[in-house]
Amino acid sequence: MKAGVNKQFLLLQGKPVLVHTLELFQQCDLITEVILVATPGEEDYCRKMVQEYGLTKVTRVVSGGRERQHSVAHGLAPLSSECEIVAVHDGARPLLLPSHLTKVIQAAGAHDGAILAVPVKDTIKEISGNGQVKSTLERAKLWAVQTPQVFKKGVITFAYDRAFQEGIKGTDDASLVEQCGFQVQVVEGSYENIKITTPEDLDFAELILRRRG
């Protein structure tokens, strides 16, 4: 973002991106507890933000790890024994629709896990190391995966324990779960559920929120 600050803390309609994201979970009746995984050194800043915006469902702020997989593991560690379903979400995805959050949680309850995804719009080509086209993939079978990714607690904790024991690295949480033989249900999401990554994304998010009113 070249903004000199973590992208989750950039302002979107006067509030940090992260606050927009956390408010979605704060307002969902199916969510009872939120564990916020913060970049090391930003924990106190996150705690102040949580208090300032009245995000009472955030029960803990924990330090992240070297890679995303380590950070998720840090978030799983303090889960309460009463927890049945775990939703893993990117702090920089503030445009998740409440209805889609509900749908993917309900789908995870009926399966081993569930993820939000959308059909890809563009033709996808596999290329070789020298930049030549190797093949054109069948677009009808390709979906772009988003978050939240939601799983039964026993499923996600088993998958992460196995991953660290066997040195497995996954591109997302669902890939670790899939490698254990569990079934992951796809729930169609929205193309608006973007991850804020570039300055253009922030402009796009402003337009979407303005349109939503």
Would you give an account of this structure?
The longest helix has 14 residues, at 153-166. A hairpin with a 2-residue loop joins strand 1 (11-12) and strand 2. A 4-stranded mixed sheet has the order 5-9-6-10. A two-stranded antiparallel ribbon has the order 1-2. Strands 3-4 form a two-stranded parallel ribbon. Helix 5 crosses helix 6. By secondary structure, the protein is α/β, with parallel strands linked by helices. 28% of the residues are buried. It is globular and about 50 Å long. The protein has a single domain (7-212), classed as Spore Coat Polysaccharide Biosynthesis Protein SpsA, Chain A (Alpha-Beta Complex), CATH 3.90.550.10. The chain has 7 helices and 10 strands.
Give a short overview.
The chain is an alpha/beta fold and 213 residues long. The protein has seven helices and ten strands.
Counting DSSP H or I runs of 4 or more residues, the number of helices is: 7
> What composes the largest sheet?
4 strands, mixed
Order of helices and strands: EEHEHEHEHEEEEHHEH
What share of residues are in beta strands? 15-25%
What structural class results from the helix and strand content? alpha/beta
The CATH C-level class name: Alpha Beta
From the alpha carbons, calculate the radius of gyration and give it in angstroms. Answer: 18 Å
Shape: globular
Helix content: 25-40%
Strand order of the largest sheet: 5-9-6-10
Tally of distinct domains: 1
The stretches of 5 or more residues where confidence is low (pLDDT under 50) are none
Number of strands: 10
**Assigned CATH architecture:** Alpha-Beta Complex
The span between the termini is 26 Å
Catalytic activity: 2-C-methyl-D-erythritol 4-phosphate + CTP + H(+) = 4-CDP-2-C-methyl-D-erythritol + diphosphate
EC number: 2.7.7.60
Enzyme class: transferase
Pfam families: IspD
